[in-house]
Amino acid sequence: MNIPRTSFPRVVIIGGGFAGIALAKKLSKQEVQVVLMDKHNYHTFQPLLYQVSTGGLEPDSIAYPIRKILKDFPNFYFRLAHVKEIDIEKNRVITDIGKLKFDYLVIASGSETNYFGNSEIEKYSMAMKTIPQSLNLRSLILENFEEALLTSDLNERNALMNFVIVGGGPTGVELAGALAEIKKGILPKDYPDLDTRLAQIHIIQSSDCILKGMSEQASKKAEDFLEKLGVNIWKNVRVTGYDGKTVSTNTDLTFETATLVWAAGVKGATIKGLDADTFVTKGNRLLVNEFNQVKGFNHIFAIGDIASMVNHEFPEGLPMMAQPAIQQGKQLGDNLLRLIDEKPMRAFVYKDKGAMATIGRNKAVVDLKNWKFQGVFAWFVWMFVHLFFLIGFRNRMVVFVNWVYNYVRFDREARLIIRPFKKKL
Amino acid sequence: MNIPRTSFPRVVIIGGGFAGIALAKKLSKQEVQVVLMDKHNYHTFQPLLYQVSTGGLEPDSIAYPIRKILKDFPNFYFRLAHVKEIDIEKNRVITDIGKLKFDYLVIASGSETNYFGNSEIEKYSMAMKTIPQSLNLRSLILENFEEALLTSDLNERNALMNFVIVGGGPTGVELAGALAEIKKGILPKDYPDLDTRLAQIHIIQSSDCILKGMSEQASKKAEDFLEKLGVNIWKNVRVTGYDGKTVSTNTDLTFETATLVWAAGVKGATIKGLDADTFVTKGNRLLVNEFNQVKGFNHIFAIGDIASMVNHEFPEGLPMMAQPAIQQGKQLGDNLLRLIDEKPMRAFVYKDKGAMATIGRNKAVVDLKNWKFQGVFAWFVWMFVHLFFLIGFRNRMVVFVNWVYNYVRFDREARLIIRPFKKKL
């Protein structure tokens, strides 16, 4: 790879998500050379992907060109690359566009959908971890409704109008809420010749509550909100299979649907060569110490979803969310500079800023450390926080304009099938 | 196709472009049943496609869901369909989703890229008639720059950074201007390790002037503007071939480029079954009379780009632009109602509202009937007119916000490779 060697030590960061970008920003204008690799040329604001899938936001508004984030940092290099392997013997990263030596390596590769080994579900279900995946889901939903118009077979029509979401975490809950609002506000107008009341939205949750990471209060209230919106929540049910038509479960329940969204879990996106059992832990994450060093290495680090940092409060590692990723990225920036200066690094301390989820118009749940609240105010807080963390002034403006419009007009205009999903199959 | 027969006569419109939408709107709330078919579920605002290709606008901002345009019109049906054939014997439209009888048929299928039979150029060049095509071009441009970073072969690198645009009409001119601004304002910051000054932008025009449909004054000034932006204009040169690397011409000139944009011509998108020599005329357009009736038919009409309406001022048919399409759509709405009421139809009279093209920041040319002007004011007029004709309040707001941002910040933020183009090949 065509990157000049300078007198500065080279830090290679794999992944331009929340963690990687926070780290790179922290290292800007410092005496290090930073090479950031990602398979996309943009950062994705993952918390709003469900709004892309449901036509509420344009995909480009939640993406930001990585080159632009760091354009004023002369010692920064971006490479659009798929990382294939880490050669830990020779301190090299092997990619589809060549090899690159590193002095320090930071794995910030995030997480990917976890199908728990079920290849049938992997094949037929929809995921929502990237912008193309979210656009595929948007196309599929709209294509299904267009197709529902054409059949006179009632079962087929219902299957085309039903949605089954597996997983009651924030992604599943937010998607279900958005779909319920579309069902109520948009479908009857767009498809007057379909009885869209028959469209069903199901959330299937393997445990006994939704929004498991949040307070009982938030979980209960979210359930209330969803039920008011007409979403069916099936608790203590585990999905066991899906052949593209029928969802089977570990109970007698089955569901007929043309759209199964798999939001039931994620796992760390590990990389070949850095996947030894000694440090790959539960959920495919890399075990790191309090300095984010991967167990057994001094110069290889992991941050964000891929890193499993265990403490007494989080015995299974910090939650796979934006906040730990951003905080770890920032702190590692400081620590790398300290390490290079041969100063002692500082242990990472997670500042829990709480969690939140939106269910729909005027409906959200927020857990702060000492204050838990739900409803309209929570919803405004949710919007403000998301606008604040969105990268880029233009993106914030455009998202804001869209939200105001959608709120005032009860609408979601990006219901466009730009790239058909089914036709490709 | 599942569409109930009512006591109203059925008008089938093929195509949801400017012409088809104008007609459908005119027929709303009238005693007709309207079935509009399109292969996309959205209307595309084609004049701004070049801004999607160059990252200035998000694709969804210039698309508008067709169902939404006519949602308050109870007797309107939209079908997402590819029309395969017109059965003029049985008055049926044959599509990929079934057959449909019509009482009145309106062809508003628009135009498609004309390669003049050169299949090699068709295979390797990029077109810009649809949103997916424009997104492909956006991806390709960005992928080429990423690739240029990787090669040490100077010729290859230059080819990756060169752009050849064939055709000096509005599309070619507007694209060239936008690329020139990106070259100047964005590439040096995004790719500090590339000598982007070497990137060349060429317009190749087979005749002796660009913007042929406009005044000599506009054409000259546009040439000035482009030359100031560093665009090379090659007049009286005809492109004869392109193998994906080298552009050959009818002269000694050749160009090395990885990106050839073909904007050299369009032709009517005729449909099988309605393609007899008696009424298919120059440029593959359907010859219509002053009521937009296709020659030889009383109940089959053509409007917009596909219709060739000849008068003494336009012996080769009205120009293939938005204005004739919109005006014909509106007028045909009236005429259809008159025809159904057994009243005489009214002859179409084209009101020439002029033409305009933008070259870049503060640079546009406008030809009105009695006033031709160029420069900053023309540019503001161009923007205002485009915002005005854009369908939908949200789209107007979002486009406006983007334009203000781009103007103030000298930026274009949608430089995202959402769906890679090259990887698919």
TrEMBL record, chains A, B:
<dbReference type="InterPro" id="IPR023753">
    <property type="entry name" value="FAD/NAD-binding_dom"/>
</dbReference>
<feature type="domain" description="External alternative NADH-ubiquinone oxidoreductase-like C-terminal">
    <location>
        <begin position="353"/>
        <end position="407"/>
    </location>
</feature>
<dbReference type="InterPro" id="IPR054585">
    <property type="entry name" value="NDH2-like_C"/>
</dbReference>
<keyword id="KW-0285">Flavoprotein</keyword>
<dbReference type="InterPro" id="IPR036188">
    <property type="entry name" value="FAD/NAD-bd_sf"/>
</dbReference>
<keyword id="KW-0472">Membrane</keyword>
<keyword id="KW-0274">FAD</keyword>
<protein>
    <recommendedName>
        <fullName>NADH:ubiquinone reductase (non-electrogenic)</fullName>
        <ecNumber>1.6.5.9</ecNumber>
    </recommendedName>
</protein>
<keyword id="KW-0812">Transmembrane</keyword>
<feature type="domain" description="FAD/NAD(P)-binding">
    <location>
        <begin position="10"/>
        <end position="329"/>
    </location>
</feature>
<keyword id="KW-1133">Transmembrane helix</keyword>
<dbReference type="Pfam" id="PF22366">
    <property type="entry name" value="NDH2_C"/>
</dbReference>
<keyword id="KW-0560">Oxidoreductase</keyword>
<keyword id="KW-0809">Transit peptide</keyword>
<dbReference type="Pfam" id="PF07992">
    <property type="entry name" value="Pyr_redox_2"/>
</dbReference>
<keyword id="KW-0520">NAD</keyword>
<comment type="similarity">
    <text>Belongs to the NADH dehydrogenase family.</text>
</comment>
<feature type="transmembrane region" description="Helical">
    <location>
        <begin position="376"/>
        <end position="393"/>
    </location>
</feature>
<dbReference type="InterPro" id="IPR045024">
    <property type="entry name" value="NDH-2"/>
</dbReference>
